[in-house]
Amino acid sequence: MGEQLKIFAPATIANISCGFDVLGLCLDGVGDEMTIRKVTSKGVRITKIIGQDLPLEVEKNVAGVAALALLTNLDRELDFGFEIEIKKNIKPGSGIGSSAASAAGAVFAINRLLGNPYDQTELVKFAMQGEQLASGNAHADNVAPAIFGGFTLVRCYDPLDIISIHTPKELVATVIHPQIEVKTADSRAVLKPTVTLKDAITQWGNVGGLISGLYTEDYDLISRSLKDVIVEPLRAILIPGFDKVKQAAIEAGALGSGISGSGPSIFALSKGKENANKVAKAMQSIYENVGIDYDIHVAGINAEGVKVIDQPILEL
Amino acid sequence: MGEQLKIFAPATIANISCGFDVLGLCLDGVGDEMTIRKVTSKGVRITKIIGQDLPLEVEKNVAGVAALALLTNLDRELDFGFEIEIKKNIKPGSGIGSSAASAAGAVFAINRLLGNPYDQTELVKFAMQGEQLASGNAHADNVAPAIFGGFTLVRCYDPLDIISIHTPKELVATVIHPQIEVKTADSRAVLKPTVTLKDAITQWGNVGGLISGLYTEDYDLISRSLKDVIVEPLRAILIPGFDKVKQAAIEAGALGSGISGSGPSIFALSKGKENANKVAKAMQSIYENVGIDYDIHVAGINAEGVKVIDQPILEL
């Protein structure tokens, strides 16, 4: 008894242009810190949330719900429990996987404290229950990269099949978060239930090109493939200045740019940190000109996913 | 003057389950032989076709049309011409790229005899003119693998962007051709102009999985990804016994099975030649039981594409 883990729970970018609902990537250095402590009293408690006003009730908190999903699945009853503290750096609703970070962090740490009874795909399943609470949709495109790290493909949900995709070392993300609210419900509502076969073929050609470009580290091919003819044209309208920010990113040398998750954050991918910084300047200049507040991050790709940053052994 | 090339023009499988209109692969040992000869009289002539009753008129022959497309594009007028002989082993209408082989072979050989002024992608463009004649649709999903070899992805047509995909060494194809006619017009007519977003996402998840499995030589992942939820359910009905043949292939150990191109050939992919032979037996037993004639091939993947098999220098 008495162990605790301090972990880093990373932000993630879902969809990545052509890969709507299947692709995601994990960011380096952008994310929450969580402390998960094994305690003598049974069950799960969220003891503290710093940085955001989020519910402490376990059943209303994504980390709590994900943790309960894991514990309920265990084939034994524990005679101890867990306390969770969250230092929330990722703003909820920003479109870079805020709820996914909390859910992924909780299940990763509890699994570790239990001696790793579950593999990464099983952890994704539990974390998806947190996503269900957050958005009404148990999707995996943020929790998968948060847990696996790097680029991930959610090939299939039934059964859940998550593939780690090779990540070129020089790929750097720029993400800008305009301080406006886009409700997940709205971003779902603008989608159409059908698409033309022609557009679908274009999209899966680009998915094939992007995956190929990632494996062969062909930055030109990655750039040519970072296109979304299906979702971006519908959702872009919900994000003020989207077209201008994207254009500024491309003109500044980005390989591609698109909506991060369901927005409102806009991401760009570049080759190398220097380019990514130039792209950041170009993107933020658009929001500065019109007076929209923003956060901006320049981040490499985090190949590890959730990770332990401190593991003191406490004597209780 | 006086050079001639004897080449092997390979059969190809287009679509490959999830990769409708974008993926293709090149077969080893199944294909036509063509002899292309530089002659003093200008223009292109088809001098002989062995094995099939196909038009000798240049403008009505896919090899002729493709050759003319290349020659018309040259920035100089030649003071010589070309004669083409075709030994046609691939049956037209079989669904394994019969027209593509002739078109690809013609442009490959003429390009070689001219000192290779064009790259592979440009050759695909010329060969697509042959496909336009053959099917009314200048598609590249057979000519691309015929020219590049291995697995290819036609990411985009405008501009044409063809990607060579890594091909695992142990992958072996089985192709069965039931001797029935499926008109290309019919196989196009059953397609629907729209698809559900849900099915489209499933399909591009599988495209991503298949491409990833090819690069990592993960045969299980290749197997899980060889699924087509969009086109196969509509086209299968045009091919007698499709479901049974596919099921027999899978039960005999194939990684996956589907319609080759627009049919009627049915392909399966297996790990290793031994498995592919077992799969062949299982597939042919279905047609034997119902008395449908068939051709069957077991073939490795041809990484080279069209190739020179003999290059005598003739003295005229």
Automatic annotation (TrEMBL), chains A, B:
Keywords: Amino-acid biosynthesis, ATP-binding, Cytoplasm, Kinase, Nucleotide-binding, Threonine biosynthesis, Transferase. It comes from Sungkyunkwania multivorans. Catalyzes the ATP-dependent phosphorylation of L-homoserine to L-homoserine phosphate. Pfam families: GHMP_kinases_C, GHMP_kinases_N. GO terms for molecular function: homoserine kinase activity. InterPro entries: GHMP_kinase_C_dom (IPR013750), GHMP_kinase_C_sf (IPR036554), GHMP_kinase_N_dom (IPR006204), Homoserine_kinase (IPR000870), Ribosomal_Su5_D2-typ_SF (IPR020568), Ribsml_uS5_D2-typ_fold_subgr (IPR014721). NCBIfam families: PRK01212.1-4, thrB. It catalyses: L-homoserine + ATP = O-phospho-L-homoserine + ADP + H(+). Residues 211-288 form the GHMP kinase C-terminal domain. It is found in: Cytoplasm. This is Homoserine kinase. Pathway: Amino-acid biosynthesis; L-threonine biosynthesis; L-threonine from L-aspartate: step 4/5. Belongs to the GHMP kinase family. Homoserine kinase subfamily. Its EC number is 2.7.1.39. It comes from the Bacteria. Residues 71-150 form the GHMP kinase N-terminal domain.
